[in-house]
Amino acid sequence: MPQHQFIRFSLSLSREQCLKVYQGLAKNISVLADDGRRIAFPAGNIQPFLTRQGINGYFEMELTAENKFVRLHRLR
Q1: 11/57 Cα distance (integer angstroms)
Q2: pLDDT tens digit string along 36-62?
């Protein structure tokens, strides 16, 4: 049975950038993963982590073997 994959990355968004996500104006987020891959995912996936100050943290994204999104977890 294929294993899930885990991609770790840092994410830092200003208050203004987070506002665009919250308002639905930003559709995708693009980041450089720790392993050097550029990944893009729907901005809605980070909505649970939005604060008034923005986002500044280290995250782990879980994907199925078929690259389907499972969850996003804040590590710190």
Answers
A1: 6
A2: 999 999 998 998 898 888 999 999 999
CATH number at residue 47: 2.40.50
Nearest to 6 by CA among 27, 33, 29, 31: 33
Domain tally for the chain? Answer: 1
pTM for this prediction: 0.86
Query: Residues near 55 by Cβ (< 8 Å), separated by ≥ 6?
Result: 11, 12, 13, 18, 46, 49
Residue 28 domain boundaries: 5-74
The residues near 14 (Cβ < 8 Å, ≥ 6 apart) are 54
